Amino acid sequence: MIVEDGYLENDSGFYKYDFSAERFLLKGGYTQEYEDEKKIELGENVGNIFDFVISEAIDDNIKEEFSNVSEGLNRIVKEFENDDTDWYNIGNSCRTVLKEFVKELINKGKIIVDKDEKDEDVKLHLGKLVSDKTNPGRFRNTLKNLIDSVWDHIQSILHRKTTTKEEALRALIWTTLCINEIVTLLGSDNSIKD
Predict the structure, then answer these.
(1) How far apart are CA 124 and CA 7, in angstroms?
(2) I need a surface site. Which of 32, 108, 165, 169 has the fewest CB within 10 A?
(3) Which DSSP helix (H) or strand (E) runs through 23?
(4) What is the DSSP letter of 114?
(5) Which residues lie below 8 Å from residue 96, measured CB to CB, with a gap of 6+?
(6) What's the whole-model pTM score?
(7) 122 within some domain
(8) Residue 146 above 50 pLDDT?
(9) Shared-domain flag, residues 92 and 125
C-alpha cells in the first residue's frame, strides 16, 4: 500500500523501490549502515518486489476476469526463485502470458478475429482493441507503441542467451503493466480523450 511520497509499507517498515539501483530503500534514505543492514537486494526475495511493485497492477479485476493470465504471471514470479533459471526463458513465459491474454479477450468477445488473421497475433489484436476503445490521438498512439515495444522486447530477450535476471525481471514488470493498461482500458469509458 502506498502511504506517502511513493513509499510502501510492510511489516518491516516503509520502503521505496529504487529502479535505478534495483533495490528497496528505507524511508529517509539510506546510508552504508542501511545498505549493510536493511536493504533488500534484487534476488534475495523476488516475491517482495512482486508484492510491492506489481501487486498494485494485478488487482482484483485481472484475477477475477483473467484468471489464467494472473496464474501465468504468478508462475513467472516463481521462476525467479531458482537461480539456475535460464533468464532468457522469462521472455518465452511473458510471451505465453500475452498470448493467453489475447486468447481470453477473444473468448470473452472483447476482440473479434477476422478470418484472415491469426488468433495469436498479440500486437495486431491488442492494437485493434486499443483503436476500438480510444479516440485517435496521442493516447492511442502511445498505448499501441507500448504494446509493440513490450512484445518486441520480450521477443528479443527470448532470443538472447545472455539475458540477466534483472533484465528478465523488468520484462515481467513491463508485461504485467502492459496487461494492466488494457484491463484498465476495458473498464473505462469507451471514448478516452487525449
Answers:
(1) 37
(2) 32
(3) strand 23-26
(4) -
(5) 72
(6) 0.70
(7) yes
(8) yes
(9) yes
pLDDT in tens, 113-132: 888 888 789 999 999 999 99
Helix, strand and coil in the chain, % to nearest 5: 55, 10, 35
Alpha helices in the chain (DSSP H): 32-37, 46-49, 60-65, 67-79, 89-107, 122-133, 138-158, 165-186
Residue 157 buriedness (CB in 10 A; 0-12 / 13-18 / 19+): buried
Residue whose C-alpha cell reads 542501511 in the numeric block: 34
How many domains are contained in the chain?
A: 2
pLDDT at 141: 94
| Gap between the Cα atoms of 24 and 18, Å rounded | 6
Cα gap 177→172, rounded to integer Å: 9
Q: Are strands 7-10 and 23-26 parallel, antiparallel or unpaired?
A: unpaired
Cell digits of residue 92: 518465452
Burial 72-82 (b: 16+ CB within 10 A, else e): bbeebbebbee
Q: Residue 17's pLDDT band (boundaries 50, 70, 90)?
A: very low
Residues 53 and 17 in one domain: no
